Amino acid sequence: DIQMTQSPSSLSASVGDRVTITCRASQSINIFLNWYQQEPGKAPKLLIYAASSLQAGVPSRFSGSGSGTDFTLTISSLQPEDFATYYCQQGHSYPLTFGGGTKVDIK
Amino acid sequence: QVQQQESGPRLVKPSETLSLTCPVSGGSLRTYYWTWIRQPPGKGLEWIGHIYDGVTTNYNPSLKSRVTISADTSKNQLSLKVSSVTAADTAVYYCARRLYDSDNYYDYGIDVWVQGTTVTVSS
Fold this sequence. Notes:
The complex is a heterodimer. Chain A is mainly β. In chain A, 0% of the residues lie in helices and 50% in strands. Chain A has strands at 4-7, 10-13, 19-25, 33-38, 45-49, 53-54, 62-67, 70-75, 85-90, 97-98, 102-106. In chain A, a hairpin with a 6-residue loop joins strand 9 (85-90) and strand 10 (97-98). Chain A starts with a strand and ends with a strand. Chain B is globular and about 45 Å long. Chain B has strands at residues 11-12, 18-23, 33-39, 46-52, 56-59, 67-72, 77-82, 91-101, 106-113, 117-121. In chain B, a hairpin with a 4-residue loop joins strand 8 and strand 9. The relative contact order of chain B is 0.30. In chain B, strands 1, 3, 4, 5, 8, 9 and 10 form a seven-stranded mixed β-sheet that branches. Chain B has a three-stranded antiparallel β-sheet with strand order 2-7-6, with no helix packed on it. The model of chain B has no long low-confidence stretch (mean pLDDT 89). Chain B is 0% helix and 50% strand. Chain B is an all-beta fold. Chain A binds chain B through residues 1, 32, 34, 36, 42-46, 48-50, 53, 55, 87, 89, 91-92, 94-101, and chain B through 44-47, 58-62, 94, 96, 98, 100, 106-111, 113-116.
């Protein structure tokens, strides 16, 4: 199985901050890395697919980059509704696997 | 946005079989990779498996011997069965739609998630 490692596991930030979350795959997954946002008690929501493509309806303050084994999710200016947990997920091979999550909370 | 709602018993006894269904609307069981994912309390996400084309399945090896995913195209319904459950199977279970181009090996992510069902395994 491909192991997905996210860092940090949690972070505290203020509204307006630039936030970066990283995800590393245990082997190359090309560009097939997706990012999700999950608010408490809700289902995850797709933000970014194929490393850098913004899902329809997702604000442009979210962006993704990377290829191979190292990937980044950036929120350019954190908004109140962005406080949530973020997961990466590889879509390169089976079984599909997720990172452990990064919880973003208010400083 | 596809709107669906899962159904099934929310309390299952150890060693019994967990059964969930998920009506599919606004999309075709034969078009997308219909997927089950679970999330134990306070933990991360685990891919259980999927069904494509209404018949082709792929399961997580960690669960493969206990899991069956099926689709009833006449009812537009997705089903999940997990046998011989233990407390470790306690989780929120989601059905979801994955968009994957198998001709070009291109993954577009899991773009639709149903609000999950909490299943507790307890006697």
